[in-house]
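Blinded run. Sample ID left blank on purpose so nobody reads anything into the name before looking at the predicted structure. Input follows.
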Amino acid sequence: MTKRLVFALLFILGTMAAHATPVNGPVPGGLKIRVKLENYPETQLLLGYHFGDKQYVKDTVDIGADGYFTFSSDTLLECGVYLLVMKPDNSFIQVILPADDQDFTLTTDAKDPVGKMKVKGSEENALFYDYMRYLNDRRPEADSIKALLTERKGIAADSIRLSKALEDIDVNVKKYQANLLAKQSNMLFAKVINASIEPEVPLFKGEEKAVQRQRYYYYRDHFFDNISLTDDCLIRSPVLFQKVDQFINKVTPQHPDSLNLAIDNLLGKMGPSSEAYKFFLIHFLNYYAKSNIVGMDAVYVHIAKNYYCVGKAPWTNAEDLEKICDNANRLEPILIGKIAPNITVKDKGDKPLSLWDIDADYTILFFWDPECSHCKKAAPFMVDFAKNTTIKT
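Blinded prediction complete.
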């Protein structure tokens, strides 16, 4: 299947750069992927790979005198889903690269890479493309039925019949998947397919709100049943980041306490020595450090204090670690829900006034910057509020 993307030309910077290096040392045969593309006039082909939520270039080769593009190395590459990227539009063909099976030949047509794909020397990629072709064959039929459903949505008998036909296709696809996964469960492509399958929530009985809660808790607790969070091959696939991102941003309530628990649970399952742990710990720290949602700085502080500042991010250099921990220490006392520091300022009479000395049910502090455009808009409302409200100053 070809897809289009804006392809990154640089590897991950800083601490993540290590992920781009080959592993396992010299091996007999090493890496050798030969690719022949019909209807591809270009003379160069790129080899890329998924990593987290992005794609990166690994290698570029020119076409050989034999008409093949050959990617070769004395060392094996890290396992994952790799990409044969075609110029000039960066459309790509996905290739499964297991940890110990990296010597094979692919022959296909650039205009129909799935339908015309022939694989020699890799049972895993042959099975993967059999699966892709099966899905491609089902898709036109399903699309046709969906179009008819839209066209005849006002006709009850047709809607029932067409819905049943669509359901039958879905059932058959699931049966095909289940049979494939049962036979090939140890193969990387099967793990990738399995990881994309949503957990099936059982039927619950009872009052509607109670049933909704039961369904939610079951879905949340079984969300990762079909994916191994300790399998580092999946960090170089398009599924792991998508699943984790969905769980954190869609399934988990968007409250710092819930997010902290969810992140701790996820990282605990990944294990501190895995690539996934390192990637997601860095990702979560940066993500919540830049969050524009009020209160999410509490997640940043939690990650910094419970991982970085206690030695659980050993790849971080001393200078960066000091900045992260200092920032977290400064933010922690002023998080939502904390008792504010005892700030002392001067009142209109130039007398010192401490925050904790104010005897009031509520105290409003308005900090503003004369150069801040939002502050300029808000300040007049705050002045009017102060004039029209009984307030201690």
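Unblinding after everyone has recorded impressions. Residues 131-195 form one domain.
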